[in-house]
Amino acid sequence: MGKKLSLFAAMAVGAAAGAIAEGSRLNKKLLKQDETLEKVHELYILFDRWLGLRQENRSLAAYLKQRQYHSVAIYGAKEPGQRLYDELEASGITVRYMIDRNANNLNAKVEIVTPDAELLPVDAVVVTAVSCLDEIEKTLKQKLDCPVVSLEELVYEA
After folding, report:
1. What is the mean pLDDT of each run of 10 residues along the chain (158 residues)?
2. Could you list the residue range(s) of the whole structural domain that residue 41 is in?
3. Is the same domain home to 64 and 105?
4. What are phi and psi of 58, to 5 degrees?
């Protein structure tokens, strides 16, 4: 009887440990999904505001020109960066290059470099990865002597 009780106790402890581990894994997965959902929501709000500006015939390029930023780099080569490039391309603002940690896996109409590459001088860098702005700004300030502005700043102050 003692062996059966010990076996049962060991099985119960093993099951409890497995349940705790699985619960922890699921919790981490849910937290990551929450972070992703929050980023998507932030982008949705930002794109909505940006579209509103376009409907009012206001442009992000005008904001950049007003600050004498004629040559820029765009940090973030995914959709927000591509849309910004498209808007600036015909405006007289020169996008010299884009910066992205995944530069080797992305395509664009302009050169994409990694943050570790030699970054050519520009009047400003526009960061489209708004959720990582502080970290990105710190990295860029070590390599470039120019203002770092967020896409969010452009959209809300244009």
Report:
1. 63 64 64 77 91 94 96 96 94 96 91 96 95 93 96 94
2. 1-56
3. yes
4. -110, 145
